[in-house]
């Protein structure tokens, strides 16, 4: 019995019970790699800081790029004279306030709308006067209110005044409004709006004072010539405009005059300036265009 007990543990393990080692992969087979779902190995701290720094610089570059693009767009959409360093020399235009047409009562159309065949201005004539530009000193006699026909006629030389007076009586104007101002350089401007009972009367008066090719002379300008540089640019469709200059040699002051007729209303614009330089064409034509737009 004892001898059997001793021999039992020493007995060899049967061959079929011995674990068989797995055969190695063929040499041509690539080594196995972990599945994508396997947990990645821990990333060292220094590379992570580098990634964060790269991300911050990328965002900063995008922001600066966006700001640069916005600035470029802003500059290209601005007028040249609005960009610092690119401003050109002023052409002499005056700084008028922002213009707007006065409100009308319900059912009252604008003079050149489809519902106003007679082309009547239903707005208060005084509200259609061009306002004075920045820096101007307003004439207290012509402050944007009503004036008499005598005040209007005082602009013409006495030798021509009687004929115009008779025409005005025959045409029976309804209202005359006026505004005047003087600029720091001494240029004086006066604007008169004369409203008639119909477009026919307004056109008749227009033809009487400007239809001969040279406007009826004004005080200080005994002889006038057509302003060849005036093309009527900026005028409202359906209106008419004429511009005249004083014939050389000028008197004490150079005088320019312009007429506008819009429906039942006629406008006279007068500018004068003493001295050798005289009046400038740019602000004169600018005033004509803006007054025309208000009447249209």
Query: What profile does the largest beta sheet have?
Result: 7 strands, antiparallel
Helix/strand class: alpha+beta
Largest sheet: spatial strand order? 1-2-3-7-6-5-4
| Helix and strand pattern | HHEHHEEHEEEEH
Percent of residues in beta strands: 15-25%
| CATH fold-type name of the domain at 125-295 | Protein Transport Mog1p, Chain A
Total strands: the figure is: 7
CATH architect. name of the domain at 125-295: 3-Layer(aba) Sandwich
Number of helical segments? 6
Q: What would you report as the Rg, rounded to the nearest angstrom?
A: 45 Å
Report the end-to-end length measured between terminal Cα atoms: 137 Å
Give average pLDDT, whole number: 76
Uncertain regions spanning at least 5 consecutive residues: 1-31, 33-38, 43-89
Name of the CATH class of the domain at 125-295: Alpha Beta
Summarize the structure.
29% of the residues lie in helices and 19% in strands.
Structural write-up:
- The structure is a single chain.
- The protein has 296 residues and is α+β, with helices and mostly antiparallel strands.
- It has a domain at 125-295: Protein Transport Mog1p, Chain A (3-Layer(aba) Sandwich).
- It has six helices and seven strands, in the order ααβααββαββββα.
- The chain has a seven-stranded antiparallel beta sheet with strand order 1-2-3-7-6-5-4, sandwiched between helices.
- The model is unreliable at 1-31, 33-38 and 43-89 (pLDDT under 50).
